[in-house]
Design brief:
Radius of gyration: 19 Å
Order of helices and strands: EHEHEHEHHHEHEHEEEEHEH
Helix content: 40-55%
Largest sheet: 6 strands, parallel
Shape: globular
Low-confidence stretches: none
CATH architecture of the largest domain: 3-Layer(aba) Sandwich
Bound molecules: guanine
């Protein structure tokens, strides 16, 4: 039976450390400041943004939400980002995705200063990560949270077969680079991959980010594997569930993350930690 990785508990532990760090910085006159830009009224995005704001405030981080109407132009958003890039009081900028269709997401991500890149999505930072550079480097928060889990549970990555299912810029690609930097042998599988089950079955470390409920079943998983589920899906009854059939897979894995209380809580904690890091690196 697998050991269940408790993301909620680890996130609380990291938040505790972040709070102490913020108190220390505040005594030195530095209050970390995160600005989140929300364009439009997407319901899920509003919830995410509210949760980030609440978490920041609870840790003593200054949090500002800038709301822009759904019909905002790319130009208007670029001007806003340019202002924030220049503002010495702002340490971290996050533009909530997805954006309305008239706005080119990549152009917006590229406009955020790499030194204020709360998400770690800037091409400069993505390039540094893939070059193995680590100094003062913001990293995508979800994969960074997963790396914290490996560390906390002493899960060795060196020389292991790691399979990442999903190739998004937010999770799959940065996850693969982080695993590679820790000397894992990394395969990225995705919707066009042939014989995906054979590849998945080789994984000592399996990270799944497909957005398909219960995509991974017990008979596809290597006995003793570590299984990390990034999914936030709905089952047929509308209940929150993951990309992995947790009940089946937990009987053969050595470590597994549940949904909820797995990867999810870690992502915001990493964003907070990263905001504090960006503030520290700014001086
Ligand atoms: N929308 C869903 N996930 C994310 C994320 O990690 N960062 C941003 N900026 N938007 C998102």
């Amino acid at each position: 039976m697998a050991m269940i990785i408790n993301g909620r508990e680890l996130a609380n532990e990291i938040d505790g450390q972040t709070k102490i760090e913020v108190e220390k910085l505040s005594h030195e006159g530095l209050i970390p400041h995160l600005v989140v830009i929300l364009v439009g009224e997407d319901e899920a995005s509003q919830i995410y943004v509210r949760n980030k704001h609440k978490r920041a405030e609870s840790l003593g981080i200054k949090s500002t939400i800038i709301r822009m109407p759904v019909n905002s132009s790319e130009e208007e958003l670029l001007i806003k980002i340019s202002d924030l890039n220049k503002d010495k009081d702002v340490h971290a900028i996050l533009v909530q995705l997805p954006l309305p269709e008239q706005i080119n997401e990549q152009r917006i991500i590229e406009a955020i200063s790499p030194n204020k890149d709360a998400d770690g999505f800037s091409p400069i930072n993505v390039g540094k990560l893939s070059s193995g550079e680590t100094y003062h480097l913001p990293i995508a928060c979800t994969p960074m949270g997963i790396m914290e889990m490996f560390k906390k549970y002493s899960i060795d990555l060196d020389g292991k077969n790691a399979v990442v299912v999903g190739r998004s810029n937010i999770v799959g690609k940065p996850m693969a680079n982080l695993l590679l930097n820790e000397n894992a042998t990394v395969t990225i599988a995705h919707s066009h991959t042939k014989n995906i089950t054979n590849i998945i079955k080789q994984a000592d470390i399996l990270v799944v980010a497909t957005g398909i409920a219960h995509f991974i079943k017990k008979d596809q998983v290597k006995i003793g594997a570590t299984v990390i589920d990034v999914g936030m899906d709905r089952d047929e009854n509308g209940k929150l569930t993951g990309d992995v059939d947790f009940e089946g897979v937990k009987s053969i894995a050595s470590f597994i993350t549940p949904v909820p209380k797995g990867v999810g809580p870690m992502t915001i904690s990493m964003l907070m930690k990263q905001t504090v890091n960006l503030a520290k690196w700014s001086i």
